[in-house]
Amino acid sequence: MNKQIPTLPGVFEQDVYTSRIRTHVLSSGPVTGTPVVFIHGNASSATFWEDIMLRMPSRFHCIAPDLRGFGLTDDKVIDATKGFDEWAHDILALMDTLGVVRAHLVGHSLGGGVVWGLIAAAPERLISATQVAAVSPYGFGGTKDIYGTPCASDFAGSGAGVVSADFAQRIGDGDRSSASPTSPRVVMNSYYFKPPFVPAREEDLLSSVLSQKTGPNKYPGDSVASSNWPNVAPGRYGPVNAMSPKYLTNLAKAVVAAQPKPSLLWIHGTHDQVVADNSLFDMGTLGSLGAVPGWPGADVCPPQPMEAQIRDVLAKYSASGGKTREVTIADTGHTPYIEKPEAFMDAFLSALT
After folding, report:
1. Which DSSP symbol is given to 162?
2. Strand-pair category, 60-65 with 223-225
3. Which residues contact 253 (CB under 8 A, 6 or more apart)?
4. What SS3 state is found at 61?
5. Cα of 207 vs its chain's centroid, Å
6. Which of 80, 130, 196, 264 could form a disulfide with 106 if both were Cys (CB 3.0 to 4.6 A apart)?
7. Is 299 exposed, middle or buried (0-12, 13-18, 19+ CB in 10 A)?
8. Confidence (pTM)
C-alpha cells in the first residue's frame, strides 16, 4: 500500500475491494461495535476525521473511507450527472462488503451531500444522519431562493468552471507553500478554519488536501460556455460538477419523502465562509461584492441562501415525521470538529442513541 499520510496511533488502515471500487479505509474501535461511517469533504480525505474517530466511545466501530476521486481510493472518473449517487452507492457497496447492515452516517461539506444522497436512496441503512457544514441538498451555486430555483436555465454559476484553476493546478503540483492566496495551505487555513486557528496536524491535513485527484475530468471537472453570467456552466465529470444543482433537481424532495426517516442532526460553525448564506465561494456573493465583474444583480443571481435552504428542508423533514436538530458552534469556520472537537463531540454523541 502506498501510504502517503501518516495515521494516528489507534487508527487502522486497509484497502477494501467492493463490487464497485477499491476503497482506502481508515478505521478504529472494536469491529463488534455499532458502526459509524465518516464521510469527508471536498479537497480532503478520511485523514480529517482521525482525531474524532479516536475520541469515540468504545461501543462504536468507526469507518472512514476516502471517496472516489480522493485520497488513496481507486482513481475512477466521477460521473457528475448522477449527482451524489456515485459516492452514495460506493458507500453502500463498502457497507455490504464489510457486513454493515445499518450505520450512523456523518458527512462533512461535500460528504454531507453524500449523506443527503444516502437518505434519499437507502434510508433503511441509516441509524442516524449527522450533517457537518453540509452542502445544501439543492447543491452548491446557481440557485436563488430557499426552494432551489435556478438563476439560469443552464445552471450557470455552478460547477467546475467557477473553481480557481490556479488552486487546482497547485493541488496537482503538490504545492506546500504559502506563496499565493490560492496556495492549498493558505486556502485551508483561511477558509476551512476560522483564522487565526491553525490545526496541530497542519502538515498531515495539507497532505490530505493535496491527495485530491486532479486532471482532465477529475478535480474540479469539465465545464461549458454559457450565455448567462458568469458565462460558464457545469460539465459532466468531476466532484464539483456533481455538486451542481443541475444534477440534484429532485434530491431535496426525495430527502423529505424518505421512509423510514433517520434522525437528522445539523452541526455548523458561526463563521463558516464556505457553506453560508453569503458564501465566499458562491458566484452570487462574489458578484455582489464586485469581485467578479458583470454581476447581473440580486434579482437574477443573488447569493445562494445555503443555510436557509437546509433549514427549510429540515423543517419539511420534521413536518413529515422526521426528528431534526440544529447545533451551531461558536467562533468556528467550515470544520468545527477540528477547531472545537469537545463541543462537536457533545453535540454529535447526543445523536448516536
Report:
1. G
2. unpaired
3. none
4. strand
5. 18
6. 130
7. exposed
8. 0.97
Q: Which CATH number fits domain 12-151+247-351: 3.30.365.10, 3.50.4.10, 3.40.50.1820, 1.20.1330.10?
A: 3.40.50.1820
pLDDT per residue rounded down to tens, the chain (353 residues): 345 799 999 999 999 999 999 999 999 999 999 999 999 999 999 999 999 999 999 999 999 999 999 999 999 999 999 999 999 999 999 999 999 999 999 999 999 999 999 999 999 999 999 999 999 999 999 999 999 999 999 999 999 999 999 999 999 999 999 999 999 999 999 999 999 999 999 999 999 999 999 998 999 999 999 999 999 999 999 999 999 999 999 999 999 999 999 999 999 999 999 999 999 999 999 999 999 999 999 999 999 999 999 999 999 999 999 999 999 999 999 999 999 999 999 999 999 97
> 165 φ, ψ to 5°?
-65, -30
Closest Cα to residue 85, out of 127, 118, 41? Answer: 118
So where are the chain's domains? 12-151+247-351
